[in-house]
């Protein structure tokens, strides 16, 4: 039986062990796949730059892949979004993402160059990798942060929604290094590109052999429905919630999105009810969006939804309940039934946009 | 084949309320459920057991009342339920949780045969981290397959498994060797209803309850708060926005008029939007 006294919250105090004191600089793992840098990595470079400046340290991007020339070209992108240097590891073994070689190389890089903070995108790739790396390094990892800051003791203060998105909490990794965090796409703003901004490259050998890697990629089939993939980066988004009352009424959401040239989505309950696929879900546990215009129809606006849409320039909410929380953060509100309001709005927009188009 | 499925009992998030004045979570009376993502993991495990023979052991870590979720899993068709419960686990973050669960999977293997597959859901609905599955894989040296949409092939003799998994912008087909850890994607299968026989068996079933020591954990420094590198310093309610939505007047108006008013207000709020919409609508 376990009879020893329960541990105290000793970890609440910062007492960084000697072996971690040399850990310095901020890193962003730059997701590079199919010849492209994932936008979330550039967003993280913007955030990482602020943290590095506050700490007075350097910002580095970590680029792994199969083709050295392609990675060198991508490194320019990384510098122009704020990095001072790029750790570059090119090896055919890293051509397609696989957990094992990526974990090994990332772990090796961290142990060699000792960063104090490592940020990754909370994409399927980033989440697959981050958990493995943090467990291998036995350090703290905070998922899906919505805010990153440096506290008075120079620790990373990572804020994220908790309890299903009804509250926020701030999490610190006080006595282990590196401090790791993931951030979902579109949660942080894209930093402006600084053309001509240069930096350094540190080449790092993978030191792996293909016959040591157990998992093999047989093939990759690209998604056909590119609209779904675009949801996070769409300029116009129309979404429906339970106020639509039946899955058939999602057609009104689709119709308005089509007239506006936008992308449609929905709130979490619609996925749970099987009305739509999970990759159209908007909110903390789905896609975070930052469109110019967001129209929420029949969505009450729980916190987990709110944190996923707050970056929108303008939020229009349609809801029958005038006390719905969505009216607390929307810019424009209409207290009306979404099922009737959506077709009227679609028609009104259609007239305006087609008339103007002919005139123009 | 012996398969282990890790599940978690979670509060039904749809029913959590925040106290309007104190901003604290009102947990009382919130029903608990098996983390919905874990059900897809359980179903997949049961299918492969039905096809290949063998057993499915369901493992959960939590307070004693988490045995509810094990009974539910047995009612769906699992063969054995193991509850890992100890006050030393209180306050575990994902790293400490993966440590305890990995130890328990090891002990399960020693007791009932080494599992060739360990399943988890893709994430929980209360923590939403998706970190514990990869953590268990790492600690046990299992080949990691996350966000699996379908298991294409499982060759027990050759010890290989082929899966389709959700990747960025597409579906990746991977082949690896057993033993492996799989986190299942939602809607990857249709979760069965348990047979009446299973439900009756579940109600009477003897569950296995292990504390840390019984699970073979000797170093409590890896458990609970002490084994958690992350510290939650502050929990708070998000700030309310000072300005509420500007309401479009709807009194005694038909929907077409309201729509027109809304568009005018919208253009007034964000003047650049009209041009933007015209460009979008024209397909530029």
Structure description:
- The complex is a heterodimer of chains A (360) and B (284).
- With 360 residues, chain A is an alpha/beta fold.
- Chain A folds into two domains: 16-212, Rossmann fold; 226-359, Rossmann fold.
- Helices cover 31% and strands 24% of the residues of chain A.
- In chain A, the strands form four sheets. In chain A, strands 7-11-6-1-4-5-12 form a seven-stranded parallel sheet, with helices on both faces. Chain A has a five-stranded parallel sheet with strand order 15-14-16-17-18. Chain A has a three-stranded antiparallel sheet with strand order 8-9-10.
- In chain A, α2 (68-80) links the parallel β4 (59-65) and β5.
- In chain A, α3 (99-113) packs across α4 and α6 runs parallel beside α10 (338-359).
- Mean pLDDT of chain A is 91; it is low at 1-10.
- Chain B has 284 residues and is an alpha/beta fold.
- Chain B folds into two domains: 2-222, Rossmann fold; 241-284.
- Chain B is built from seven helices and 15 strands.
- Chain B has helices spanning 36-52, 67-76, 94-112, 132-140, 196-204, 255-269, 272-281, and strands at 2-7, 9-11, 17-18, 25-26, 32-34, 55-61, 80-84, 117-121, 143-155, 160-167, 170-177, 180-184, 208-210, 230-236, 246-247.
- In chain B, the strands form three sheets. In chain B, strands 11-10-9-12-8-1-6-7-13 form a nine-stranded mixed sheet, with helices on both faces.
- In chain B, a hairpin with a 6-residue loop joins β3 (17-18) and β4.
- In chain B, α2 (67-76) runs antiparallel to α5 (196-204) and α3 (94-112) packs across α4.
- Chain B is globular and about 70 Å long.
- Chain B starts with a strand and ends with a helix.
- β10 (167-173) of chain A pairs antiparallel with β14 of chain B.
């Amino acid at each position: 039986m376990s009879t020893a006294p329960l541990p105290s919250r000793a970890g609440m105090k910062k007492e960084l062990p000697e072996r971690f004191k040399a850990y310095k600089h901020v890193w962003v793992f730059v997701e590079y796949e199919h010849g492209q840098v994932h936008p979330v990595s550039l967003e993280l470079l913007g955030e990482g730059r602020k943290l590095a400046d506050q700490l007075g340290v350097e910002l580095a991007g970590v680029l792994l892949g199969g083709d050295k020339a392609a990675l060198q070209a991508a490194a320019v992108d990384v510098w122009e979004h704020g990095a001072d240097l790029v750790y570059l590891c090119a090896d055919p073994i890293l051509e397609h993402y696989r957990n094992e070689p990526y974990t090994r190389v990332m772990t090796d890089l961290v142990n060699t160059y000792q960063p104090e903070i490592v940020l990754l995108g909370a994409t399927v790739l980033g989440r697959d990798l981050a958990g493995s790396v943090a467990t291998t390094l036995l350090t703290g990892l905070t998922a899906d942060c919505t805010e990153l800051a440096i506290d008075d003791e120079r620790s990373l203060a990572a804020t994220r929604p908790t309890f299903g998105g009804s509250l926020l909490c701030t999490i610190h990794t006080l006595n282990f290094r590196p401090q790791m965090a993931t951030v979902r796409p579109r949660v942080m703003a894209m930093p402006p590109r600084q053309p001509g901004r240069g930096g350094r490259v540190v080449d790092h050998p993978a030191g792996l052999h293909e016959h040591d890697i157990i998992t093999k990629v047989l093939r990759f089939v690209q998604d056909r429905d590119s609209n779904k993939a675009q949801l996070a980066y769409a300029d116009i988004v129309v979404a429906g919630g339970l106020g639509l009352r039946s899955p058939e009424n999602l057609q009104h959401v689709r119709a308005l999105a089509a007239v506006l040239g936008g992308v449609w989505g929905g709130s979490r309950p619609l996925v749970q009810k099987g009305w739509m696929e999970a990759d159209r879900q908007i909110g903390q546990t789905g896609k975070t969006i930052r469109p110019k215009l967001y129209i929420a129809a029949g969505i009450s606006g729980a916190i987990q939804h709110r944190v996923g849409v707050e970056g929108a320039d303008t939020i229009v909410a349609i809801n029958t309940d005038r006390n719905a929380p969505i009216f607390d953060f929307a810019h424009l509100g209409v207290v009306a039934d979404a099922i009737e309001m959506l077709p009227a709005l679609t028609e009104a927009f259609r007239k305006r946009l087609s008339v103007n188009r002919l005139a123009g | 084949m012996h398969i282990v499925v890790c599940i978690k009992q979670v509060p039904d998030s749809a029913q959590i309320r925040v106290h309007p004045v104190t901003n604290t979570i009102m947990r009382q009376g919130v029903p608990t459920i098996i983390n919905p993502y874990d059900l897809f993991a359980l179903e997949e495990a049961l299918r492969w057991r039905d096809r290949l023979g063998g057993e499915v052991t369901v493992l959960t870590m939590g307070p004693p009342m988490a045995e509810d979720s094990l009974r539910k899993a047995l009612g769906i068709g699992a063969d054995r339920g193991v509850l890992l419960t100890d006050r030393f686990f209180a306050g575990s973050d994902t790293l400490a949780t993966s440590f305890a669960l990995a130890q328990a999977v090891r002990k399960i293997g020693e007791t009932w045969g080494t599992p060739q597959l360990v399943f988890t859901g893709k994430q929980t609905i209360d923590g939403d981290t998706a970190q514990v599955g990869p953590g268990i894989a790492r600690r046990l040296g299992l080949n990691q397959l996350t966000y699996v949409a379908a298991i294409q092939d499982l060759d027990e003799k050759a010890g290989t498994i082929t899966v389709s998994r959700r990747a960025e912008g597409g579906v990746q087909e991977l082949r690896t060797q057993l033993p492996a850890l799989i986190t299942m994607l939602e809607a990857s299968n249709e979760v069965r209803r348990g047979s009446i026989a299973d439900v009756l068996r579940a109600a009477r079933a003897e569950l296995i309850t292990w504390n840390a020591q019984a699970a073979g954990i000797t170093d409590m420094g890896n458990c609970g708060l002490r084994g958690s590198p992350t510290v939650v310093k502050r929990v708070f309610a998000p700030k309310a926005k000072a300005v509420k939505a500007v309401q479009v007047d709807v009194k005694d108006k038909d929907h077409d008029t309201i729509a027109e008013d809304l568009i005018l207000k919208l253009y007034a709020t964000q003047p650049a939007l009209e041009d933007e919409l015209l460009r979008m609508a024209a397909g530029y």
